[in-house]
Specification:
By secondary structure, this protein is of the alpha/beta class. Helix content is 46%, strand content 10%. Helix 6 (158-178) links the parallel strand 5 and strand 6. The protein is globular.
């Protein structure tokens, strides 16, 4: 059965095309800075928003028109696999991502859930073998079910911790089965509502215990994906422990996880934390911990996780610049953790939205490459910090000065002159690269 019978495989046709089902900017074979666009971008499609999101919101019922529902939950799960791989092949996307509950119904017990996962991942593996499409990462949903009301690894209930550990074990077994390149932990409920009844240190220590168990189990089964933590400051928890990139890195370093864990960073989560996306990417890059990204955008007028498809070229340009500065993002990728708007309810909108996101990131890649080749930011920064290349600045950087010697210097050189950054001109010139 074909779920998108009126759509052929989507190809690059250039920006003058009138064909909605064509790429206007994403040319997978175009070479930029020695690699093809496909190699740079490593696009992935998220199973949850693409296959299970129904268009409902707190004020309205589901609106999405979907044709893969069967007579039983397992029939629907099987149909979704067929439809999903049709989407991937028509978009010519190389990777995908999923939570365990996205692909298989939970059933009435953990044993039944695992059995359902086994059956559906058998089908997924068949499709992967047929198409060459690969698993970027998978993860366990340890936040939706009521059992996780007080967290998963951070729960005050040891039985919940044990249940969570079982889900992670199964997730790693599935990752090995499907050749997953990464494994993500997003602690949706790993946080607290009130410190009045919370032992924050104990809860974070328990999270680290689960992470170390995952490392040990991966080594035991001979499968070591790149482990990733995905920061988010709030929602659903009031105070989440992995607030932002810097907070997550402090946790990683405190618990000695830096050799095994990097970060999976999402644009909309950066917004909620009060940061720009490029800030979060830069923080991770400075720690050599930029692992993968979730591609979406938020709405600055709304204070929650809207997960919109990325269409802002300014943002994707600065994000891709950080990725280029990082030397690429492999084995991570650019996963569209994005959902169509409630008014975009047709089946074909799933393809159209991904085309828009892929084109926007392609434009960002081209602009970022031009910025890098022209040394636009490099020259700005070299000029701005030039005082540290000679004289007293060079001695400071070389650790040849101390407080006493610098005091002597400052007393003799207290007539200080600063130079304007001309920041408005810089931003205006940056705009030239976006057009």
């Amino acid at each position: 059965m074909h779920y998108f019978p009126n759509v052929e495989k989507i190809k690059y046709e250039g920006k003058t095309t009138e064909n909605l089902f064509a790429f206007r900017h994403y040319n997978p074979e175009e070479v930029i800075m020695g690699k093809t666009m496909k190699e740079h971008l490593r696009f992935a499609v998220a199973y949850w928003h693409t296959m299970t999101q129904d268009g409902s919101d707190p004020f309205g019922d589901p609106v999405n028109q979907r044709t893969w529902f069967g007579e039983t939950p397992m029939d629907t799960a099987r149909n979704r696999v067929e439809a999903f791989f049709e989407i991937l092949t028509k978009l010519d996307v190389e990777y995908f991502c999923f939570h365990d509950v996205d692909i298989a119904p939970a059933g009435d017990s953990l044993e039944e859930f695992f059995s359902n996962i086994d059956e559906i991942t058998d089908l997924i593996k068949e499709k992967m073998d047929q198409t060459g499409i690969k698993l970027l990462w998978n993860t366990a949903n340890m936040f939706s079910h009521p059992r996780f009301v007080n967290g998963a690894a951070s729960s005050n209930n040891a039985e919940v911790f044990a249940y969570s550990a079982a889900q992670v074990k199964k997730g790693l077994d599935v990752s090995k089965k499907l050749g997953g390149e990464n494994y993500v932990f997003w602690g949706g409920r790993e946080g607290y509502e009130s410190l009045l009844n919370t032992n924050m240190k104990f809860e974070q220590d328990n999270i680290a215990r689960l992470f170390k168990m995952a490392i040990a189990y991966g080594e035991k089964i001979g499968h070591k994906p790149q482990f990733l933590i995905e920061p988010k400051p709030m929602e659903p928890s009031k105070h989440q422990y992995d607030f932002d990139a810097a907070t997550a890195m402090a946790f990683i370093q405190k618990h000695g996880l830096e050799n095994d864990f990097k970060l999976n960073l999402e644009a909309n989560h950066a917004t909620l934390a009060g940061h720009t996306f490029e800030h979060e990417l830069n923080v991770a890059r400075d720690y050599d911990a930029l692992g993968s990204i979730d591609a979406n955008q938020g709405d600055v007028l709304l204070g929650w996780d809207t997960d919109e498809f990325p269409t802002n070229i300014y943002d994707t340009t600065l994000a891709m610049y950080e990725i280029l500065e990082n030397g690429g993002i492999a084995p991570g990728g650019i996963n569209f953790d994005s959902k169509v708007r409630r008014s975009s309810f047709a089946m074909d909108d799933l393809l159209l939205a991904h085309i828009a996101g892929m084109d926007t990131f392609a434009r960002g890649l081209k602009a970022a490459a031009a910025l890098k080749e022209d040394r636009f930011f490099d020259d700005l920064k070299e000029k701005r910090y030039a005082s540290y290349t000679t004289g007293i600045g060079a001695k400071i950087v070389a650790d040849e000065e101390d407080l006493e010697s610098l005091t002597t210097y400052a007393l003799a050189h207290d007539d200080i002159t600063n130079e304007s950054s001309h920041l408005e001109v810089v931003k205006s010139r940056l705009n030239d690269y976006l057009v």
